Amino acid sequence: MATTESPTTQYLTFAIANVPLMLAAETIVKVVEASPQVILSFREAGFVPSGSHSIRWLNLHERLSEATPSSDRQFLIVLRDGDLNLWGLLADSLPNLLAIATEALEPLPPAEESIPSAEACQSPHAIASHVLFAGSGRVFVLDLEKILALSIPVAA
Question: Residue 35 in 3-state DSSP?
C-alpha cells in the first residue's frame, strides 16, 4: 500500500523581539551574521548598500513592541519582493531551515486578523498570514505584502 506524503514547503524560522516567526525560503536571498556597521547603518539611515543595490530595513522589532533587540547577536535576512527590491530583517536568533507540510499551517482566525489599528503595529497578527501550532506555542508565517504595506509610506 503506497502512502502519499503531504506537500512541504521550505521555511526559514527565527525570532524577532522574542516572537517566533518564519518566512517561505523562496523569498530569501541570503542570511548572514549582521555586523555592527550593518546594524548602525539600518538604525541611522534605514538601509545598507550592497554592491549596486540597497537593502532597505524592515524594522520588525518596532512593529512587535520591542525597540531594542533581545539578543547580542543578530542575523541579517535579505529578502526579495515581487518587484525585485531587496529588504532586510534583523533576526535575534540563528535562523533554521525547515520543511513544513502545507497542511500544518493554519490561517489566522478572523478575530486575530482584524486587530484594532492602535494595536496593529504591535501585534504579529498584523504582519502574518498563517500560524503553525508547535507544542504549546505558535510560529507566525510572515506575509511580506502586509509588512511592506505597513512599512512603505503611501504617497498622497
Answer: coil
